[in-house]
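Hi V.,

You were right to ask for the full record rather than a summary. Here it is.
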Amino acid sequence: MKQWKDGRTPITGRYDEDVAALNRTMATNSDVHVREFDLGRLGIRAAVFFLDGLSDKELIEEQILLSLMAEWSGKPNSEIRSTNRLPLLETIRDQILPLSEMSEASLIEETMLKVLVGSTALIIDGVPTALLIGSIKGRTRTVEEPETEGLIRGPRVGFNETLSDNTALLRRHGENGSMAIVKFKVGLRAQKDLAVAYMEDIADPALVDEVKRRIAKINIDNLPESGYVEQLIEDNYLSPFPQAQSTERPDRVISSLMEGRVAILLDGTPFALLVPVTFSMLLQSPEDYYERWIVGSLVRLLRFFAVFISLFVPALYISFISFHPGLIPTKLAISIIKSREFVPFSALMEALIMEIAIEILREAGIRLPKPIGPAMGIVGGLIIGEAAVQAGIVSQILVIVVAVTAIATFTIPFYSAGLAFRYMRFVAMFCAALFGLYGVVLFFLFLSTHLVKLKSFGVPYASPSIPYRVSIWKDLLIRAPLRMMKKRPELLHPQDPIRKK
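Predicted structure:
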C-alpha cells in the first residue's frame, strides 16, 4: 500500500488493501475486533472495526450491521440498480443509518485513533473513505454527592468522570443562552476532551482569551487529571498556594461563572477548575450563601481564626517556650515547666515529633479502606499522644496544641489550601526556633508579601483586600446580606457589573 511522504497511509477504496492495512496497524491491539459482511444483494464487501469494552455492541449489531445487511436484501433488482447510481457512502450516511454522530476519515492512522477511543469504522469496497460512527459506551459513575465538599444545606449533586455529564449538569442549573462551552483536544499521545465554560455576556473577554491561550500551549503526552492542567497554566509554579480552585460541585461552578470567572473541565475527572482564584475564596463555602448572612459571616470568621491557629499556634508555642517564657502567665508557665520536666528534647524537636506523627496518621487514614480509615486516625492519635506523654517524650500541653492545630486545619473547605497551610506551618516552626517571636513576625511579613505579589490570571491573589477599598469588602471576612451584594467583583472586570437590579 502506498504511503504519503509524511508516512501516513491513505484509504484507497480497495477493500483487501484497506482491511489489511487496518489489521496491521492494530495488530498489537487485541481488543480491536473486525466484522466482515456483504451489503445485502448488492454483493459489495464491507467491514466494521470496533473496540471491545468501549464500543456499544448492541448499537453496532442492531443499528449498523442489521441496517446495512437488510437494506437491499428484500428489494427487487431494479431498485438495487437505482440505488447504485447514488454515491454509496452518502446513501448509507443520509438514508440508512439512524445515528446522529458520524464523520469521515481518509487516513488509516486517523481511523485507528478514532476506533481506539470507542468509535466504529465502516470500510466499504470501492469507497476511498472510512465512515466513523459514534458508538462509545463506557462505564461511568452515577451522579452522586461530592465526598470532598460535604454540606449540611445545599444540592446533593456532584460531577463525575464523564465530560458530557458534567457540562449537562451545568446546563441544568437554569435556562441560560449566554453560557458558552468551548472544547479543546489536549494531550499529545493520549488525547482527551477539555471544556472551557464561561458566560459570554459577563466574563471579561481578555480573561477568556488568556485561559484559551494557556490551554492551547499545553504540550504534554497525557493529562490524567485536572491537577495537571492546574500546574501547567498557573502563574507561579513555585508558590505553595493553589492558583486555581478545584471543585466537584456544579453549584459552586455556576456561582463563579455568574461572577465572571472561567471554569475548566477535563474528561476523566470529577474536579473542575475555577480561575482566577483569590485567597479569600479558599476559605469560602457555598453554605455561607445558603444560610442567613449573620450565620454565614460568623462561620467564615471562625474559618479565618482556624487558619491562624493551624498556621501559627505551634510556632508561638516554640517561641514562648524557647525565647519568651516571661510573656506566659505565671501559673500557666509553672504548669508547662512541670509537664516538660522530664522531656529530653527541645521545644522544636518535640513539636516536630508530634506534628510529623499526626501527618503520617492523616496520610495513613486516607490510604486505608474507608471503614477503618477514620477510626485509625482517631485511635492512633489518642494512643500515640498518650504513649508519648507517658514515656516523657513530649509534654501534655504540646499534645493539646497539636490536637487543636490538626482539628483547625479540617475547617478549611478547600483541600489543596489546607495542604498549603499544613506544610507552611513547619516553616513557621523553624522560624520561631531560630528567632523566637521575631521569627514568627518575619514569617508573617514574608507570607503577606508573597500573597500580595502573587497573581492568578492577572488578578491579585490578595484581592479584594488589596487594593484597599472598603466598598468591595462585602464578601471578604463577612458575608453581607444578599440585598446589599448588588455588584459582581470589580477585580474580574465583568462586562455586566450588576448582578441585582
